[in-house]
């Protein structure tokens, strides 16, 4: 699996332990630190993680343009299995012709997401409840899905919380990959810290800790589902 990262601490989180357990190997590429995008030949899947930048900030982060092109090549041409989280969700949408814009209402904290009718019937969410808590930390969102995409989940403030394109590409605006140190690590990123406000990191960490067992259980179910679909 090729894993594209946009912040050192925003990695696949608990999914890493599932990959190691099941003898899957993965290569991480830290794009924000200048790492070059590799050729896709030889990879069986592509995962794209979150990050503090926005999809439209190509002037500040020139590698975004090449990353979008690689995602389009991987998903639309090569039909590689895909998983995108947060920024990875937005990049998938834009790479395939959708639109991403600033959120009318930012979502920061542990919040509820509800599956759509399509999401409740989708294999990727098999075994998950129709409504569940998850961590949100974003101020941009998918405002128009690409042609052929299906919305799998939504929240009060965000219409496209999860998306499927074709039988092989899945993405989510929310986070399920949390580990006990995730909130602390992400709160060190200036853009994320600014969204929290005074005392926000402590409150979010406590709230995440209270939900951690459920987060981890759902993450493993989602991982199992994704692997079964793309096996």
Summarize this, please?
The chain has 7 helices and 9 strands. The chain has helices spanning 15-21, 63-77, 87-95, 117-121, 182-186, 190-196, 200-230; strands spanning 2-5, 27-30, 46-48, 82-85, 99-115, 131-144, 149-154, 162-165, 169-172. Strands 2-1-3-4-9-8-7-5-6 form a 9-stranded mixed β-sheet.
Q: Your description of this structure?
A:
This protein has 231 residues and is α/β, with parallel strands linked by helices. The protein has helices at residues 15-21, 63-77, 87-95, 117-121, 182-186, 190-196, 200-230; strands at residues 2-5, 27-30, 46-48, 82-85, 99-115, 131-144, 149-154, 162-165, 169-172. It has a nine-stranded mixed beta sheet with strand order 2-1-3-4-9-8-7-5-6. Strand 1 (2-5), helix 1 (15-21) and strand 2 form a beta-alpha-beta unit. The longest helix is centred in the last third of the chain and has 31 residues, at 200-230. The two termini are 12 Å apart.
Topology:
Layout: E1 2-5, H1 15-21, E2 27-30, E3 46-48, H2 63-77, E4 82-85, H3 87-95, E5 99-115, H4 117-121, E6 131-144, E7 149-154, E8 162-165, E9 169-172, H5 182-186, H6 190-196, H7 200-230
Parallel strand pairs: 1-2, 1-3, 3-4, 4-9
Antiparallel strand pairs: 5-6, 5-7, 7-8, 8-9
Helix pairs in contact: 2-3
């Amino acid at each position: 699996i090729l894993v594209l990262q946009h912040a050192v601490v925003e990695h696949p989180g608990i999914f890493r332990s599932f990959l190691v357990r099941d003898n899957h190997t993965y290569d991480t590429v830290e794009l924000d630190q200048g790492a070059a995008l590799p050729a896709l030949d030889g990879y069986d899947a592509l995962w794209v993680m979150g990050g503090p930048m926005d999809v439209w900030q190509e002037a500040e982060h020139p590698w975004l343009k090449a990353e979008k092109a690689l995602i389009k090549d991987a998903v639309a041409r090569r039909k590689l299995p895909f998983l995108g989280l947060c920024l990875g969700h937005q990049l998938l949408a834009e790479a395939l012709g959708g639109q991403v814009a600033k959120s009318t209402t930012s979502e920061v904290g542990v919040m509820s997401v509800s599956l759509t009718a399509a999401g409740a019937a989708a294999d990727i969410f098999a075994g998950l409840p129709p409504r569940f808590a998850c961590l949100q930390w974003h101020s941009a969102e998918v405002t128009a899905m690409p042609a052929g995409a299906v919305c799998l989940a939504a929240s009060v403030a965000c219409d496209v919380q999860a998306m499927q394109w074709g039988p092989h590409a899945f993405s989510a605006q929310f986070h399920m990959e949390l580990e006990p140190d995730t909130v602390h690590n992400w709160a060190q990123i200036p853009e994320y810290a600014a969204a929290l406000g005074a005392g926000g990191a402590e409150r979010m960490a406590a709230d995440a800790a209270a939900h951690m067992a459920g987060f981890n259980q759902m993450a493993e179910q989602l991982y199992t589902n994704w692997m079964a679909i793309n096996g």
